[in-house]
Amino acid sequence: MATKHEQILDYIETLPVGEKISVRRIAKELQVSEGTAYRAIKEAETQRLVSTIERVGTIRIERKTKENIERLTYAEIVNIVDGQVLGGRAGLHKSLTKFVIGAMQLDDMMRYTEAGNLLIVGNRSKAHEYALKAGAAVLITGGFEASDIVKRLADENELPVISTSYDTFTVATMINRAIYDQLIKKEILLIEDILIPLEETHLLHEKDPISRYHEKNAETTHGGFPVVDENGKLTGIITSRDVIGHAPGDLVEKAMTKDPITVTKQTSVAAAGHRMIWEGIDLLPVTDDGNRLRGVISRQDVLKAIQTAQRQPQQGETIDDIIKSQLRMPSADKLSLEFRVTPQMTNAYGSMSYGAYSTILIEAAMAALKTKNRKDSALENITVYFLNPVQLDSLVHIKPVILDISRKSAKVDVEVSLDNEIVGKALLTFQLLDR
User: Residue 214 is part of which domain span?
Assistant: First the structure.
């Protein structure tokens, strides 16, 4: 049976897009406490089912898929620019296709403004009216108000008119940054992207006999299975090691490993892979907040997904991507690398930041291992010695040396020099991943 938390989330999903939601209303309609309703609404916000706007409230929005995650809703625009909604609140759930900066003559402005757009402009009332009639929302910069005619048009057409105290350039930069961040999120693989769903998952029940495990094992050749109770909640996991010494008639609940490690659909594949490798786990159950089983992932699924993602073109550039793009191979020695310190890589004092420094060391060591054995690797431990600060625009040389390598692990020494003087050293330990 679903928990009250799950019932509230299911109820919110059934509400029409654009409907306003409140803690008090949810608590009254579903007969739950306001605390339970509040926590469920916050979870719905995390799942992008609702959006909360200051001075407006919480509204139901359309759940975004990976394909259109970079498309922002007008509700999100309000939060990004610290805006105030002057009219058209009923349209806050709608998504915008592009934004137009109104730094041109009125006729030219209207040629570029279409339905689903967001016109960013100052206190130009005629432009506001024409945009709303064309089916576009309006973002008024500089903290200006809208006329009563514009507010009425906004309400009639269900298109938001938003006011912000920021100037046009700042607003455009903030929205661009938000879209860029969404592109980066789009590239991050989550468990929900590789999940074997519940209907395809082979599982056992607590009251099944051990003989049922052997039947499942012979049928699927899988070595482990999640175990659930009569309500579908995960209670354990059973593997070939667990059944050793148990008679065929013994119950699964007597042999299973209780309270297994789990992940949720929103866990990143990289985090799950890291946990599986470190814990020596081949099968990881996926659960929801109520500990109900939603599916499983295998170590092979995780490694395959990570290796596939590494071959995909990047749409959004992270700090790590910027650092990697600066690494160069200066000579025929495939292990030696060069790195130019750019402004993004520095701290407040103009020296290379510890984060950038560590990333360079890790990337250089991983590149050396890849050249040596063609395997992917996961960092296990790093010890760094910062001997001298590295200034902006410095060209540093990185020399990784593989000290020891086995089938499962490797140790790499990395030396960083500037003008033939050693400025840093590190010792890194890696686990090597089988393809």
Answer: 192-308
